[in-house]
Design a protein that fits this description.
1 helix; Prepilin-type N-terminal cleavage/methylation domain-containing protein; 38% strand; transmembrane; nine-stranded antiparallel β-sheet
């Protein structure tokens, strides 16, 4: 025969308060973990956006340079916040029968000075980067001017005026930051820095 306990006393006030305190502690802990995970996810998303934007900016600069086909860098106009590429020579195709008279379709390529040189200017200004006045990034992105800049090393200068570097290596350093979150904000992310070097 089974025995049943017949207890109608219920919970005391102390037991009820202890149960509420333990439940509150568990719920606050769960909420804290959830909130931290959500903030970490948002920060990672912002970091990925910064990385993507920096990659896009550099890819755009490289595409513009490829299309522009510069002949050098204007050394007198280039600073840490601005780099000026110059295209002052044009390619001419000349048929030269004297090299191979039996094949007059042989073509020589000569580079001649253009009457008016063209320039392509990449500039860092007011928290943004632009090529010939066209901004390359969205409004959410800010270029950190103190940590960004242009530099170059020249291996061959123009002999006449020494104002144009004809060959060398360009270094572009970009530090990008999210405009929406200040340093005191929970979602603040340190600036992402991208350094690119290429020869010309």
């Amino acid at each position: 025969m089974k025995r049943y306990v017949n207890n109608e006393n219920g919970l005391s006030l102390a037991e009820l308060l202890a149960a509420i305190a333990i439940s509150s502690f568990i719920l606050v802990s769960i909420y804290g973990v959830f909130f931290s995970g959500l903030n970490a996810y948002k920060r990672i998303f912002i970091e990925n956006q910064l990385r993507s934007e920096a990659d896009y900016i550099v890819a755009t600069i490289m595409n513009k340079l490829y299309a522009f086909a510069p002949d050098g860098i204007a050394m007198d106009q280039t600073t840490n916040a601005q780099i000026v590429f110059v295209s002052d020579k044009e390619i001419q195709f000349v048929s030269d029968e004297s090299i191979n008279p039996s094949n007059p379709s042989l073509v020589m390529i000569k580079k001649e000075k253009k009457p008016t040189p063209e320039t392509l200017t990449v500039v860092l200004q007011d928290g943004s980067i632009a090529i010939d006045g066209e901004r390359l990034h969205s409004d959410r992105l800010k270029i950190v001017a103190e940590e960004s800049g242009f530099s170059y090393t020249c291996s061959q200068q123009e002999e006449e005026e020494k104002k144009i570097c004809r060959s060398g290596v360009v270094t572009i350093k970009l530090a990008v930051q999210d405009r929406d979150h200040d340093p005191g904000d929970l979602l603040h992310v340190k600036p992402f820095t991208l350094k690119t070097e290429f020869g010309f």
